[in-house]
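[job 4471] stage=fold_predict status=RUNNING
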Amino acid sequence: MRVNYTKIIATLGPSSDSSSIIENLVQAGLDVARMNFSHGTYPNFKQIANNVRKASRKHNRTVGIMQDLQGPKIRLGLLPKEGISIKRGQKIIFSTLAKPKKDHIPIKYRNLHKDVRKNHLIFVDDGLISTKIDRIKGNEIHCTAKTKGTLFSNKGINTPNSTIKAKTLTPKDIKDLNFGLKLGIDFVALSFVKDAKDIKELRSILTKKGHSQVKIISKIERHEAIDNLEEIVQESDGIMVARGDLGIEIKPEKVPIIQKRIIELSNKYGKPVITATQVLASMVNNPRPTRAEISDAANAIYDHTDAIMLSNETATGSYPLESVRMLAKTISSVENELKKQREIVENEIKNKDIPDVNAACLSACELAVDSGANRIIVYSKDGYTMSQMVKHRVFIHTILITPNKNLIQESSLYWGINRSIYKKFTKKQENKNFANELKKFVKTSKLAKKNDKVVIIYNAKGIGSIATYTL
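[job 4471] inference complete, writing structure tokens
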């Protein structure tokens, strides 16, 4: 069974929703199963969740479940099956009317004509077709095509110069969220986040519904999010670098720079960060990835991403299991190199811009490295100690012990948590000599081998307590 530090997220769909394939994916290293609510049916999602939990129990491996909400994705309306061919320089009229004129291109978002301006760009189908707005007349958006191509029904639209005023949470999202909460999701990914208010709105809904334990992953895919990045990271429980739409909203050559900034900022605040989109895209149709794709995944690991996400590779591709295995091998290869060549990481404990309350976690990491510890035991009730420990990226086998069952699932997304164990101690045990109680539990549960050097950290949110001993 794979023991890596960087986590693997796989989107499950038609190619990977069966019980047998999900079991194989879990054995190959799946840490979080993503369900994309832009596609699929409720019965299918229920089946996927059940199959994931069944495989997780069978192989004693923690696997989280993430619901990815569609959000206010702007799309074309219904067009002829063969599509509409567009030539460069051709005049096009987009319409936001429910029943547009015959030669107009329908757009499902009814207020787009209010949000865009003259000379703004409208990209269709992941930017394959580019148009520039000449004028706006009522519900009509008159454009000139800058590139040729074919328009098809329901293709996505991006407006890199415009601020879309549509609510981040749509009625569909609320309905989908209610279903996801009944399924018992661990994470919910919020699409097209613009600022911290979007996250606060979703958190308020989760709290009112009695599901405050569900963690919010903010997807960075709009140009407005880049301007409000720090406040979004601080308000979120985790971040996703959604490079698909992001690479259309901003110049594609800027995406690697923004990706590094997002990862660095997430590391600083101890928030898990996911690198997503087209990681092994060629494996949708081919059994082997390109060298450039492997380098892309490797660079994300060098940058200290917590997790890497596969989308179409596992959801609709021909080689879902091979994709997860390839990513797992890539992670192992890079991490083994990082362990040997410390200079590549710059500094194993490089982020010292931390509040005083986190000094215990930093000290525990330094102690573990200096003493050559074989195990780090993290006891955490609310996740604070866990998140502040792993952000220092120490390559030492780390085990989470917690009385919080929700935290077990949450740990599936965090870099470096190699194993999670549920254990409830009495108040008497916690107050007397808790370090000794943890030592006993480590020994009786065989969490370390004889002569292993072990560092224990707990209560980092308070005064912080560290213990070290040899088993």
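[job 4471] summary: DSSP finds 16 helices and 22 strands in the chain.
[job 4471] exit 0
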